[in-house]
# Entry
Amino acid sequence: MSELRIGFQVNGEELLIPVTQGGSLLDLLRDRLGLDEAPPSCGDGQCGACLVLVDGSPVRACRLPADEVAGREVLTAEGLSESAMGRALLDRFSASNEEHELGCGRCVPGLLLAALSCLENAPEPPDLETARAAMRGHPCACLYQDEIAAAAVEVAREGAV
# Structure
């Protein structure tokens, strides 16, 4: 496989970096950039644990070739706190989660990014069902979807949207 140089933005930082054609965005983020909040899990895009936002839309990083992010903006869970809405979502989720740790948390980064995408792209502040729908396809046995959906609705109600 050949290498090419691409320019793109990760968590607000402009990068110009060589990538291997056909290599996944997940490998680039984790192995080359040290951004490990998108965990490798199933390896074939089924679980959603490696979800990131590309130009504001949820994408499973293990399935997207790295060279396809040229000229685009990538947001990982490490960059969530860079926006007021992302900080509000993290704060709300953290506050609700302090009361009861539910499980392993492997799915949390992808779920938070899916919720942020919902908040940013919904034509009006999302209700609980809309927030839950944004996270479908992310298996989570420990119920973090409900916690994060509730946090997203609270953020929307508070007017951070």
